[in-house]
Specification:
- By secondary structure, the protein is mostly helical.
- The protein has 2 domains: 64 residues, Arc Repressor Mutant, subunit A; 38 residues.
- It contains 5 helices and no strands.
- The termini are far apart.
- GO terms for molecular function: sequence-specific DNA binding.
- It comes from Rhodanobacter glycinis.
- This is DUF1153 domain-containing protein.
- Keywords: Coiled coil.
Length: 104
């Protein structure tokens, strides 16, 4: 690992995360090696790598999205999915209550 990564890390700043992600992407280390060396769960490092790839993809777009726009779009998508799930749940409850009343 590089000199930046050799010191004992107490707090994972964005710069340190970026350095580790870059080393993984460049093949200088593996996710499992980093996980063992820094005593971090592999899933956490995987999420950093995915975040880095998303950020890199956005930065290379012709019209990069603002981080706020990304979160607002993601929030809107989640709200729509939640609304659809609630409608389905209400419909199922309504159907169950109607079927329950017909049986008595």
């Amino acid at each position: 690992m590089s000199a930046v990564m050799d010191e004992e890390i107490k707090r994972w700043t964005a710069r340190r995360k970026s350095a580790l992600v870059l080393e993984i992407i460049q093949g200088k280390t593996t996710l499992s090696e980093a996980s063992r060396q820094f005593d971090l769960p592999p899933s956490e490092i995987e999420s950093w790598v995915e975040d880095g790839k998303r950020g890199m993809e956005n930065a290379l777009r012709a019209k990069p999205e603002d981080v706020r726009e990304q979160y607002e779009r993601q929030l809107k998508d989640l709200q729509e999915a939640y609304g659809e799930a609630m409608l389905e749940l209400r419909a199922r409850k309504k159907l169950a209550s109607l079927l329950g009343k017909d049986e008595t």
